[in-house]
């Protein structure tokens, strides 16, 4: 039977677009109110805040995150190549802005190791191009507002003039100028992506790509911190192959290791790892995680200060951290042009991590988020703080897990965390002067445990899906050995290639009938399937388009053991020989048979079927090449008196076949060529003479 299709009313897209445009451009008080409420979700949920029910969990989680944020902010400043005060600014402003604009109740937005690394790589590159020395302990090329007369300062002044910065701006000033310009452009990209609803870009970052990128970047972060662990002074490597070059420099200078830093690092890592392992093991008994990082920083600072480790053992310390806020400043436009390309991967990674974490916890706690609003939120978490000497932010998984485990209910906890950071900014920052950099490096390295543990999951991942494992390995290797941005791009391209290859060479099979049923399955995969006499059933498990056309034909000919083109050529050749014999008056054929017997020779013994059923249930679409391919096999097999029947086609495939003229001009023979189940097609083939 042939099912009757519904008649769809054609929509005038132009009218629809104009109607939407008129609706969008209209402005009423209610619409303005809804727009403001949607843009600042806090106005919707804060009036409904259940103080007695939520306040304790929010305050507790906010305090714990604030305590964790302070040491992490100071530590991640090493990754970004900036002073610790800028990391504290970033943590403060990001929490306040996300409180106002975010739709997730649980994610913790602030500094994130991968984002800090990407910022730091751009900052280091631009500092080198400007003529600065990347050595952390090197004296500034331009100091305290006065120009020095050495050659390095001349080079620096020349380069700074080119990019439009005042020549009196020193290394620290130029570094934060680059970081704020990069952050501003990344935020603008994110807001534009929100306006044009380009959130679908995140779909191309699969879980394997993100995991591989995070693991590869973690190896880069680990490598960058080793010099602080052992207290050696080596140049900060830039460009492709940074990981390999850095390790070569480390081994070349290993003899210069600072014994004080080595001992301190060993003790700190032992304490941090032990505390983390105990925390993971007994987390169900702990009401909140142990503030190990803060304890380590406080103890290490006291030991360094009273032991005078910097003066006696030349151990590198954090140095002076000012209190209060630096006056806001507009990011330099000329610098924005220099970092515009670098800001794009930064914007995408920041958005993807934020939205993926938001969706994960929204699903876990049974509420919804708005991905587009999340893009606006994280965009303004970058744009606004860039005026206040802050750099790029993102949601972080580790801190979000801590938030949820300590009873977080809403983003009020983010405000509490911001107040803790503000307290440090206004009063406590100078107390960290004597904190050794090796301690900060230990905190960063231990925080990478989750990403580095992905190596243990490789066997299980390989067992689950070999292609995804290959994507993970390629992305991780490119991110670590080339650069993080190139690694992300390589991962996206390679994962797409894997999908293309899967559709180019999909599974194909001949089907057999499950005994005494109307169902059919792959006869190579299942036992006790019966073959259907005189009928071959072919399944192709992919869309049929230009890239896999040849594979479709080769698989069909191989499985049916018949190439209709070769068979037609063989028959023509045989007929030609017969005609030649007849012209010579020989009534015996080349095979010694009579003329009446030659027709038997025209049908080869290997053709053991009279109908070919193509199972189209896995063919999601056809392009022009796909339609022409089906028309070609229909014609070729018809020349051999073999009918081709299509089964289980979806409506879009049927429409493509109609438009391509597969059924002829009047569609009258559709019911003899198209069937809604394989069994109907088989029954029809059996009834044919």
Automatic annotation (TrEMBL):
- Keyword entries, A-Z: Cell membrane, Glycoprotein, Membrane, Phosphoprotein, Transmembrane, Transmembrane helix, Transport
Looking at the UniProt entry, the stretches that span the membrane are 54-76, 96-119, 173-192, 212-230, 335-355, 376-398, 418-448, 469-497
Against InterPro entries, the record matches this protein to:
S04_transporter_CS, SLC26A/SulP_dom, SLC26A/SulP_fam, STAS_dom, STAS_dom_sf
Q: Spell out the Pfam families in the cross-references.
A: STAS, Sulfate_transp
GO cellular component terms listed in the entry, alphabetical order: apical plasma membrane
* Gene Ontology MF: a single term: secondary active sulfate transmembrane transporter activity
The residue ranges of the STAS domain are 525-685
Compartments it resides in: Apical cell membrane
Record flagged with keyword DNA repair: no
Q: How does the UniProt record describe the way this protein sits in the membrane?
A: Multi-pass membrane protein
Catalysis performed (reactions):
bromide(in) + chloride(out) = bromide(out) + chloride(in); iodide(in) + chloride(out) = iodide(out) + chloride(in); oxalate(out) + 2 chloride(in) = oxalate(in) + 2 chloride(out); oxalate(in) + sulfate(out) = oxalate(out) + sulfate(in)
> Does the record bear Ribosomal protein in its keywords?
no
Regarding protein family, the annotation reads:
Belongs to the SLC26A/SulP transporter (TC 2.A.53) family.
What is the name listed in the Swiss-Prot or TrEMBL entry for this protein? Sulfate transporter
User: What is the source species?
Assistant: Atrichornis clamosus
Show the taxonomic lineage.
Eukaryota, Metazoa, Chordata, Craniata, Vertebrata
From the UniProt record, report the name of the gene that encodes this protein.
Slc26a1
